[in-house]
Write a structure and sequence with these properties.
Blueprint: H1 4-33, H2 37-40, H3 42-62, H4 67-86, H5 91-118, H6 125-154, H7 156-177, H8 189-194, H9 199-219, H10 222-229, H11 237-259, H12 263-284, H13 288-303, H14 306-316, H15 321-348, H16 356-411
Helix pairs in contact: 1-5, 1-6, 1-7, 3-5, 3-15, 4-5, 4-7, 5-6, 5-15, 6-7, 6-11, 6-14, 9-12, 9-13, 9-14, 9-15, 9-16, 11-13, 11-14, 12-13, 12-16, 14-15, 15-16
């Protein structure tokens, strides 16, 4: 794999850390700003909505400048947002900082996925995408637990200041390691939007919203689930987040490896496993050992959907991939926002912190159903093409035969 993928992974590491670290620091943030835990959950929802908003806008801007320059600029925006969160005097300012940082998220992963896929042979594209996303999963093993521990001991503001420093490091890594790339061929906005007329692109994005979004019915409220329901001490949240991150890391690598060989079977397996794991989480949370087993399974099945879904969008929107690729990252975060919002409604209604995972299981089951529909449409399309090809060949053979007959008659 090219060394440039390391630079993309560094940026993904910083983004992943800031995206998920609020799950472990939600109680501390809520206490300092004197808001409820569901209200503090808007730091996750607001971030996700910012990704949805920023992804298409900045992706269109990114189609007009060099991709390397755009990636560096996006990390600058990310750094500024986290610095604002670190010094926020009130909850509203912190939420604004989260949204500023989130604007870079979708375009970074969308453009980064195109760059990663372009650095390798066609049969290795999903693997290259998974290598970039490995920074996101490693952040859940190292960045998020360390950020949680640092926030609990030194204050959550220090955590966000360190994340801003990660943004600066990522800018340096991209400037140093990513090669100078040719200016992308300018595609009109209408050309980029044309990709969304492909039903398979829309189905893939809908699967993205429902599939990985289901994971956030757990991850948004991970800390209270582990402490208030499963009975773990607050100090144990760190290593439990490491377990969750290990599952995500493994799922990402497995999803990338097998998506290059059998994309749809990999996707169907991951979504089926995620549905079952989320549905069983409320039962598992009654036992500490079962909880520790369930966390990496949910993280693994959830992130195993990411490389195949991103590759599917790129494949189906091959002629104009920039907006579709960034749009799919926005779809991930739209699902996250919906899941976090649903979870907040359920908890505010007086239900247990684990109850939202039933909604997450329903979301994952919906994604599985859409994957089956997508696979069926693809089989029918392939069959029509094969039939059309056979018909064309038969007609050509018939035409050739009819052309031969006069020649034979003339010979006699």
């Amino acid at each position: 794999m090219p060394l440039a993928l390391l630079a993309l992974a560094i940026g993904a590491f910083g983004i992943g850390t800031t995206e998920f670290v609020t799950s472990g620091l939600l109680p501390e943030v809520a206490e300092e700003f004197h808001v409820s835990v569901p209200t503090a959950g808007w730091l996750t929802t607001g971030y996700a909505l910012g990704v949805v908003l920023g992804a298409p806008i900045l992706a269109i801007v990114g189609s007009r400048v060099s991709r390397k320059k755009m990636l560096i600029s996006l990390m600058g925006l990310f750094t500024a947002g986290n610095a604002l969160s670190a010094v926020a005097p009130v909850f509203g300012v912190m939420l604004a900082g989260r949204i500023v940082a989130s604007l870079a998220h979708g375009a970074f992963f969308g453009i980064g996925a195109i760059v990663a896929a372009g650095l390798v042979a066609p049969q290795k594209k999903a693997g290259a995408i998974s290598m970039m996303f490995s920074g996101l999963t490693v952040s859940n093993i190292v960045g998020v637990p360390f950020g949680t521990l640092l926030g609990q001991s030194a204050g959550w503001r220090v955590t966000f200041a360190v994340i801003a420093g990660l943004g600066l490091l990522a800018m340096l890594g991209i400037a140093t390691l990513v090669p100078r790339l040719p200016h992308p061929e300018r595609t009109p906005v209408s050309g980029e939007l044309a990709a969304f007329r492909n039903p398979q692109v829309l189905l893939a994005m809908a699967m993205t919203i429902l599939g990985f979004g289901g994971v956030f019915t757990l991850s948004t409220y991970m800390a209270p689930v582990l402490t208030d329901v499963a009975g773990f001490a607050p100090s144990s949240v760190t290593w439990l987040l490491v377990l969750f991150g290990v599952g995500m890391f493994g799922g990402n690598l497995i999803g990338g490896r097998f998506a290059d060989r059998a994309l749809m079977p990999m996707l169907l397996t991951a979504l089926g496993g995620l549905t079952v794991a989320l549905a069983l989480l409320p039962l598992a949370a009654e036992n500490k050992v079962a909880t520790a087993i369930a966390l990496p399974l949910i993280g693994g099945f959830g992130f195993a959907t990411v490389p195949p879904l991103q590759k599917r969008v790129l494949d189906q929107a091959a002629s104009a991939p920039t907006l579709a690729s960034a749009g799919n990252i926005g779809a991930f975060n739209l699902g996250n926002a919906i899941a976090a919002w649903l979870g907040g409604l359920v908890i505010s209604a007086g239900f247990a912190y684990t109850t939202p995972t039933y909604a997450g299981a329903a979301m994952a089951a919906g994604a599985l159903a859409l994957a089956l529909v997508s696979a069926g449409l693809e089989r029918r399309t392939d069959a029509r093409r094969a039939g059309h090809g056979g018909l064309v060949a038969a007609r050509s053979a018939g035409t050739a035969a009819s052309d031969d007959r006069p020649a034979v008659a003339a010979g006699h």
